[in-house]
Design goal:
Order of helices and strands: EHEHEHEHEHEHHHEH
Structural class: alpha/beta
Strand content: 5-15%
Shape: globular
CATH topology: Rossmann fold
Low-confidence stretches: none
Radius of gyration: 17 Å
CATH superfamily: NAD(P)-binding Rossmann-like Domain
Number of strands: 7
Mean pLDDT: 96
Strand order of the largest sheet: 3-2-1-4-5-6-7
Length: 254
Amino acid sequence: MAQRDWAVITGGGTGIGRALAAELAGHGISVLVTGRREAELETTRALDPQHIHVQPTDVAEARGRERLCAALPREARVAYLVHNAGVLDPIGPIGELEPQAWRQNMAVNVEAPLFLTQALLPRLDEGRIMHVSSGAAHRPIAGWSAYCAAKAALFMLYRCINAELNERRILCASLRPGVVDTPMQAHVREQSEERFPTVERFRTLKREGQLHPPQEVAKFMSWVLREVSDGAFPAREWDIDDTTHHELWGGPGA
């Protein structure tokens, strides 16, 4: 990669975002990581201070996206833009959802990826965008109506970006990381069965050690970002639990 090429990762203070920042930095890539909590971002930066740079901000707000864009060096090209930031709340029955909580979910999960991509278009010449997707984009889950709707919208946004921007060689991928051992999953396990009827499934996955480590997911994401061909990158939704590609990136059991 050229020295002016950068990666931008949202939601990089913990979990998948932190692990991906370290993974890409290990390949010598300059990474700009953002999130709302400065202390957590500094922990991420400390993993590789030479390559990892941080900008505390809220990408769900226009001013936050402006600050993020301004934090990039003037000559930087965004080779990789990873929309990793996401929220699960509000969790609960549809009859109890509050409009403001619903709007905040959409602001983080849908509006931020759309309008951050828009803001960075001048720097995305032949760049790659990655949306972090979920099985919730494709099937209804009781108690997760906001998250399911947001991830479904994000999936369609991935398809629309490709329909509009592929001719400029700006490519977008959608990637499902599986069930990952992150703070979000801890939050899921804290829910009551009244608010989230299938919570016991996630508690069982944790007890039985079936959650993907963030570092494993980051390795998969890095492979898709850096090594998959231009034709294949946007052509499918990449799923870590699809074993057909595990040998190519060193996945579980490879």
